[in-house]
Amino acid sequence: MATIRLKKGYDLNLKGRIVDPAIVSSEKSALYAIVPDDFVGLTPRMDKREGDHVSAGEALFHDKTFEQIQVTSPVSGVVKEVRRGQRRHIDAIVIEPDGQNTMVKHDTGGDALSVMLASGLWAMLRQRPYDIVPSPDVRPRDIFVTGFDSAPLAPDLMVVLGDDKQYINKGVDVLKSLTDGDVYLGFKPDEALDVPGAVVNTFKGPHPAGNAGVQVANIKPVNKGEVVWTLDIVTLARIGRLFTTGTVSYDTVVAVTGECADQPHYVRATMGCQMSSLLGNADHSGCRIISGNALSGWRVEADGFLRAPYRHVTMIPEVSKADEFMGWASLCPSRFSIYRTFTSWLAGKREVSMDARIKGGERAIVRTDEYDDMLPMDIYAEFLIKAIITFDIDKMEQLGIYEVAPEDFALAEYACTSKLELQRIVREGLDRLRNEMS
Questions:
Q1: Could you tell me if 25 and 69 are in contact, meaning their C-beta atoms sit under 8 angstroms apart?
Q2: Distance in angstroms (rounded) separating the CA atoms of residues 333 and 165
Q3: Most C-beta atoms within 10 A of its C-beta, which of 165, 314, 317, 423?
Q4: How buried is 244 (Cβ within 10 angstroms: 0-12 exposed, 13-18 middle, 19+ buried)?
Q5: Checking DSSP bridges between strand 90-97 and strand 77-84, what pairing results, if any?
Q6: Model confidence pLDDT, tens digit, residues 165-188
Q7: Over the stretch 292-351, which tens digit does the pLDDT of each residue have?
Q8: d(Cα 311, Cα 313) in Å, to the nearest integer?
Q9: What angle do CA 176, 379, 423 make, to 5 degrees?
Q10: pLDDT tens by residue, 406-415
Q11: Gap between the Cα atoms of 173 and 166, Å rounded
């Protein structure tokens, strides 16, 4: 077991951290939804129409290119609505539960690849390059599993796992049958598990140490022409459970965190549930509700739905101190900056209050090396962003485009003095590059 120490990055210590790891049950959700945009790389083709009955684990839609890739329903019930946006884009598939909890049973005695595809768990994997759902006709060089989440206020994945730790060994056995290389597991030093058949590494350092892409880059980077898969340890346990019991578990433990949360806590729920079932009936006006972490999550409304990977909700103020004297130039000792712009750094590490304002406008990129300081990967991040903006394919390849995903730039986006939407730039660059290469 090797320990990899990362110096680059930053731990943003927001208010609203969970203190008590006890898990409570959520209220019953009236509706559930699957959002196709959560499964990047898939072009959905519906298998169910409005009014059709669906069992838990039954396919809602499949991919247009690889029809064997399916995304399944988390509950049994009736397809209440297929919400569409511009150009008939499928925004969400809403299911009204019937309370019967009928579930699809899979025969796990056959080929592991076929079982994964039919179960819907395949759509929870990600492929580098391009950070998309993997192509089933490409065998990966290696598979990487991250065992912790280092994002601000992120849940402890060991708490989310719970008793499902017993399925990890089986999950590793299944993954090993899908690759000719190794299965790598990355943990915090104090949470490492002994998993036979896997190569276990521990990572010590600030966020984004828990990102799968950062772990890949510091263990065995992806070169042009190579393919690796990534996933988290919660998905690994679901795979092991599938091949042990024949069914997929759609239960999840969600961390409800943030300054606006009423007593931050863990809550047991079902994938795709309504936010109201997690947050209760309290008035959350003036709060931004984020499905995920504050750096890379999705903004949702109070009547919206829990988005993949279905384990974290963050609540921060939309605006705090809107009429603050002198604005950004205020000398208030509570003002926070990672660059020691204000005197608050003299007080040492402490919890900080952060609202949803950008506090500045987009401007030209200035060479400051700030992206590199936030990204513990052997790439020149600023030059890569410029190459993506100009869509210089040769430079993008030379600068490591095949190694990165939008989430790897989330912290750099937060620190960016130019206020650029780095995650959007990287996502659009990866999509254009994939289209160009296909």
A1: no
A2: 45
A3: 314
A4: middle
A5: antiparallel
A6: 999 999 999 999 999 999 999 999
A7: 999 999 999 988 999 999 999 999 999 876 666 666 666 677 777 787 777 666 666 788
A8: 7
A9: 80
A10: 999 999 999 9
A11: 13
